[in-house]
Amino acid sequence: MRLHRLDITAFGPFGGSQSVDFDALSAAGLFLLHGPTGAGKTSVLDAVCYALYGTVPGARQTGQGMNLRSDHAEPGTRTTIRLELTVAGRRLEITRQPPWERRKLRGTGTTVDKAQTWLREYDAPAGTWKDLSRSHQEIGEEITQLLGMSREQFCQVVLLPQGDFARFLRADAEARGRLLGRLFDTRRFSDVEKRLAERRRASEARVREGDAALLADAHRMQQEAGDAMELPELGPGEPGLAEAVLGAAAVARSTARERLAVAQCGLSAAESAHGTARQALDEARELARLQGRFVEARRRAERLEAEAGAHREAQERMARARKAETVAPALDLRNAAENEHRDAAGAEARARVALPGPHAGDGPAGLAAAARRAAEELGGLESARRAERRLAEAAEERAGLDQQERADEDVLREAEAWLADWDTTRAALRSRVESAQEAATRAEQLAVRREPAQRRLAAARSRDELASELERARNLALASRQRAVDARAHWLDLKEQRLNGIAAELAAQLTDGEPCAVCGATEHPAPAGRTAGHVDRETEERALADCRRAEERHAENERRLGAVREALAAATAEAGDTPTERLAAEADALERDCAGARREASALHAAHEELRAAEQERERRLDERQRAAVRTAARLTRRETLEREQAALEQELTRARGAASSVAARAAELERRTARLTEAADAARAAEDAAQRLKDADARLADAAFRAGFDTPRAATAALLDDAAHRELQHRLDAWQSEETAVRAALAEPGAASAARQAPADPDAAERTAAEAARRLREAASARDAADRRSTELDRLSARAADAVRRLAPLREEYERVARLAALTAGTSADNERRMRLESYVLAARLEQVAAAATVRLHRMSAGRYTLVHSDDRTGRGRSGLGLHVVDAWTGRERDTATLSGGETFFASLALALGLADVVTDEAGGVRLDTLFIDEGFGSLDDQSLDEVLDVLDTLRERDRSVGIVSHVADLRRRVHAQLEVVKGRSGSALRQRAG
Known about the structure:
The chain has 996 residues and is of the alpha+beta class. 68% of the residues lie in helices and 10% in strands.
């Protein structure tokens, strides 16, 4: 990626339009972006970031982009950023305009224009720019895809922030992990850890539920089979349970199929009888229908003969109405002409009432001539109207000058009073800013220590609660275990008692003459009797159900006990053995110190804003004082001009208005007279035209009535029918014709006449016979369906039980494999010697690459003394993987990066930033970055160190790469010849560019 040109308008501190020619700056390879504090050096980098991603880095992006507009900009100038760059071999131009609150074009108040974005590409063969898109989303996706980096990665890789990497050097492993995780997006590895843990829990639950589900299916099969199936006396997990269940299911399925065959034969016989009964019922119903149809047809024929006379009269009335319809258009035309003539005559009478006396009897031509004369007189007053308006405007302008004079005097007094206390006010505000800055530094240092302390305190409290919960869970598990043992013993006792008295239970089912289910004899001379305390089947099943519920509660309590143990171990590993009260006291003290520092630091922004506002107020007061003096001189000349103009206008108006009070009154009188005369002339002409049209319509109506066969137009009008009467008469005629046709067809139907000659049908008896056959069919179908459902359900449950048996072995194997992988990726496995989670392992590999890339440049900047190395040693009780040390070649020892001095920290952080840029670039697909920016940090170096750093930066120019240094260090202006200077002024900042 190479930047070519940046155009900034009304952005940040830049009130006007500024341009940066990066091609000219990049020619030297190394260029300097400098200027005083607060001038806007960082705003140039913000503009590059905003052009690419539509947002600026960090906390400066608030308010949907509304805060990006410069306070120095003119009200009519819109904020615009235009960036021209080459990326992936394509030369693009991106133009962005953030939302803009401006004044409304009509009315008062303001309105907000939406953000705008344009993307164009340069077509080299054609030599023109080609529009690609104006969609924010499409442009954002296109730029992100071409660069291969998110905004956060871009700000870390292209806009190298030295302060962030100095903190990165001194941070603990957790803080380093958060930054590296954002840059390299390792969330997928964390998701793998969570997914493996979830799969381990799910596999374990399935294995535990396998045997219970198999036995539950056996109970459901016994419910379906009834006395055809006996359950095995085995519990979940006992050997041979699967084979016993599958064998009993096979016997039950065979018995169910035999019963289904018997039910199917009964259903076939019932269906045959039902079909015969339905056929007899249909024949009886059809005979009854035909006999009734013939009788109804005879009755309708007699009614038609009685209504024949009325039908002939209706036909004659319809014929006369159709002749009269030919006269209807002429009649409608005559009625319309009569209404028009009446309205025109009324309008003429009303218009003549408002006319002056001399014109009341004039015809249309005379009224039109009088209107033209009044209009000509009115046109002659137009010049006097303009003079009258100008005289009023001049009076208002003179009053405004007097008001401005009084206002300027007040402004001058206020400005002089305010400027007299300026030095005292500025000193007090600067003192507040310095105090708040010191508090902000202190708050940042305390905040780094607060979060680890809060985590240890929360873990300690959880540790104490879980210790108590562990004892309760252990006692509950022991109690539930004893209850389960007692319930099982009780069930086994009842089962044994029932088996001992099973002869009495079987004897209760014996019937004389029926074979015994045990010996097969049909005589039962001495059946066994029930003894005291006999246990029946229902009592045994209730005891078995109680036993299983007790075992399920015991298993649930054991699972809960294991979960509490795991949680207690995790909390103890986090909090250690330190008492909770001591950790709470340390955390509270740290929280109080941090809160106090934050309260003091919160006033920093307000103090900055108040100082900036005070400086702007001083500039405004000085400017207002100067403008007031200029306006005073201009008012004297303008007042003399207005006095001469008013005298000339008064003379012209006296001549024009005559006897009227004003020119406007004279003009209004002429306008009213012209309007009345014009209206009366139009109304007279309309009345004459309407009378002639009425006469013509009468003649056409009489001629149309004669041709239609009527003696007079009145007779034709009487023969007409309205739409409702015409439809009603036509409906009657059509109904009579349809009825006549239907009756003839019914009487001529062969089947109806033949049925009328037969004996009357009796459908009720046939229906009773069919209903009885349908009842027998339903009973047979219900029996067949019940047998079919029983057989189908037994087949389904047997298949599911067999499938469950096959699934148990691979499920247990899967559980062992997943549990081993989950423990390995979570860092709790014995095979994971350093207790590194999977995500930490990946980040450690990235950090090792970054350290190797940074060492190449750090070795040169430190004259071969320092080397950055990655350490995967554990720190305290935490996990290992993200340590960072520095090797000192002078002492041969490896030490923590927090022991480096200020200048050494700058070396290391700069090398780390450049190394991270190289690694992230490779991660993004190897996108070439031809333009880099390095922000601050050079002030901590001596001359020799500064030369070494510049030599390293000079090597970045290889392969036509350019590096921009953002700094206000004065010595860099002498060493770096290509410069972009930001100049701060009262009307906003400006850019000055100097090529090397």
